[in-house]
């Protein structure tokens, strides 16, 4: 019988297979000769240079991955900083929007007041002109009558003279009234002119502020556009580095796999050498056991032959003695019958004793031969027991040598920053139209109750909007509204076509529920309420970001959580408080 074994490739099963061969060899050796055992094929044995090269590749790959991970982390920090600055720029545009609307309103009011003053001035001038015209007519009438009254009165008599005097008195009084009216109208005209001049200057100042607000909005928009390009460039650079890092990780994983394979092959080769030593030792033990068995069998055969020869000699001696006794008996027949019988009995007893001794000697020799056979069988059994024990030990070694897969190592993706690159505003000709197309979700204002009740009302009002889309410029006291165009990334997310909130719009809406009116700009919201240290924040306080709260705002919920409208492409959500970039103070409105 022959055993043939084919080895496909080195594997954890290889050691088990090798040790199984050794156990089989030991058993076969104990059973006898004529058994052919196929010699196992040695597994591949990588060289020390190959192992060193594989380990160096792993070390180099680990260094590359660590370096790229550090670079990616730095880029993400830069992007986070830019996103924070973008939040400030977005809120600066919001501020410019609020200021521009205020300036436009003031300019419009100043123009209206200046126009009204001009109209009053024109009306006063017209009244003065009418009064002057009347006075001129009275003066002309008095002049015409005054040239003829003396002669006519003398000729007409006393009655006519009195009438003339009465008319003259009436004309003088009427002229005096007209002059007084003209003087009053002239005074009013001077006041109107002064007022019109002051309002004209006020209109000029308001229009100048309007122009400055427009310029500020355009400047903020330009800065927003510039930073958008910079942010896009940094994001592209980060993406490139992430791809390089992923490629380096793939190379590292391949290097680790190659190193693991080579080290496993080296281990399997060393296990194979050990198994070969054990196999050869088992074969030697089996051969020695077989030789001992053969020697015992030969000795047993020799003892059996000697015992057989001794038994034959004893039987021959007994037969000779019996023949001699018969012959002696025949000779004794010639003597007296009694003597012959006595001699025959004695001879028979002697023969019986001799036969018994011979039989005992033969039985002793047979017992020795049986003991030799038992010793041989005991040797065979001992060899089989040793082979079985060796096989069991090899099976236990194989179980202990089974490899354990190490857990794979995973690297975290960098998260995104607090703010996206998509929160930008396009004021355009419809700058004041934000919030006019929103969805009215207003709830009745809670203006009474304890502070705790008001805080919970504010938070409940904010939480009711969780999941609603971020829309830059969106959010009013009544609820979410349509976002505003920015001509940039926010437009790419379609903020102008979404109904939702930006950060300050969500805060404005939440606190409107308790009767607190806030402007739609984080910088102005920061000026309301009481400033407190961030370490002393309470539920319902406002958290601001940026040196002057111009970047972002959220509502603190307690336990390290806050609710916010983070950035374009996101939704109103509850997130852990970010301490990086936080303004010096939090604000408590209730």
From TrEMBL:
InterPro entries: NLP_P60_dom, Papain-like_cys_pep_sf, PG_Endopeptidase_C40. It comes from Corynebacterium kalinowskii. Residues 452-590 form the NlpC/P60 domain. Belongs to the peptidase C40 family. Residues 192-212, 294-314 have a biased composition (Basic and acidic residues). Residues 315-328 have a biased composition (Low complexity). Residues 65-141 form a coiled coil. GO terms for biological process: proteolysis. Residues 192-220, 284-328 are annotated as: Disordered. The lineage of its organism: Bacteria, Bacillati, Actinomycetota, Actinomycetes, Mycobacteriales. This is Peptidoglycan endopeptidase RipA.
């Amino acid at each position: 019988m022959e055993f043939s074994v084919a080895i496909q490739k080195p594997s954890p099963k290889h050691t088990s297979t090798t040790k199984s061969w050794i156990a089989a060899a030991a058993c076969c050796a104990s059973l006898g000769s004529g058994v052919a055992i196929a010699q196992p094929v040695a597994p591949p044995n990588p060289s020390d240079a190959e192992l060193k090269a594989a380990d160096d590749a792993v070390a180099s790959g680990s260094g590359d991955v660590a370096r790229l991970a550090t670079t990616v982390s730095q880029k993400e920090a830069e992007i986070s900083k830019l996103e924070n600055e973008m939040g400030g720029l977005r809120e600066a545009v919001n501020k410019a929007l609020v200021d521009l609307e205020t300036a436009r309103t003031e300019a419009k009011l100043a123009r209206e007041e200046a126009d009204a003053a001009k109209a009053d001035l024109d009306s006063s001038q017209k009244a003065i002109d009418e009064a002057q015209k009347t006075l001129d007519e009275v003066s002309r009438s008095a002049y015409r009558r005054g040239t003829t009254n003396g002669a006519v009165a003398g000729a007409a008599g006393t009655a006519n003279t009195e009438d003339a005097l009465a008319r003259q008195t009436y004309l003088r009084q009427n002229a005096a009234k007209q002059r007084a009216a003209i003087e009053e109208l002239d005074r009013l005209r001077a006041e109107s002119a002064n007022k019109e001049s002051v309002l004209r200057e006020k209109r000029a100042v308001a229009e100048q502020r309007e122009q400055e607000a427009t310029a500020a909005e355009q400047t903020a928009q330009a800065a927003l556009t510039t930073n958008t390009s910079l942010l896009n460039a940094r994001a592209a650079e980060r993406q490139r580095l992430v791809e390089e890092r992923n490629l380096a990780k793939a190379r590292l994983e391949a290097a680790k796999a190659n190193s693991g394979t080579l080290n496993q092959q080296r281990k399997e080769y060393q296990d194979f050498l050990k198994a070969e030593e054990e196999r050869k030792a088992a074969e030697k033990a089996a051969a020695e056991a077989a030789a001992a068995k053969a020697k015992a069998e030969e000795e047993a055969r020799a003892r059996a032959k000697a015992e057989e020869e001794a038994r034959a000699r004893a039987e021959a001696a007994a037969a000779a003695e019996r023949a001699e006794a018969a012959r002696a008996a025949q000779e004794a027949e010639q003597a007296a019958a009694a003597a012959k019988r006595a001699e025959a009995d004695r001879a028979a007893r002697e023969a019986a004793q001799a036969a018994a001794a011979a039989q005992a000697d033969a039985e002793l020799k047979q017992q020795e031969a049986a003991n030799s056979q038992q010793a041989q069988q005991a040797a065979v059994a001992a060899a089989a027991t040793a082979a079985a024990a060796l096989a069991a030990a090899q099976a236990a070694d194989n179980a202990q040598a089974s490899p354990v897969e190490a857990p794979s190592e995973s690297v975290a993706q960098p998260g995104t920053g607090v703010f996206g690159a998509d929160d930008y505003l396009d004021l355009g000709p419809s700058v004041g139209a934000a919030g006019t197309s929103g969805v009215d979700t207003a709830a009745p204002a809670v203006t009474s109750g304890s502070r705790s009740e008001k805080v919970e009302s504010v938070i409940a009002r904010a939480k009711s909007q969780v999941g609603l889309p971020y829309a830059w410029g969106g959010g009013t006291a009544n609820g979410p509204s349509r976002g505003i165009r920015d001509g940039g990334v926010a437009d790419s997310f379609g903020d102008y076509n979404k109904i939702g909130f930006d950060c300050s719009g969500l805060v404005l809406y939440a606190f409107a529920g308790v009767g607190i009116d806030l402007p739609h700009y984080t910088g102005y919201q920061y000026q309301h309420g009481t400033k407190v240290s961030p370490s002393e924040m309470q539920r319902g306080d406002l958290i601001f970001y940026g040196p002057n709260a111009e970047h972002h705002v959220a509502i603190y919920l307690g336990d390290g959580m806050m609710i916010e409208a983070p950035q374009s492409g996101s939704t109103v959500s509850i997130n852990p408080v970010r301490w990086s970039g936080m303004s010096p103070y939090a604000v408590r409105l209730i």
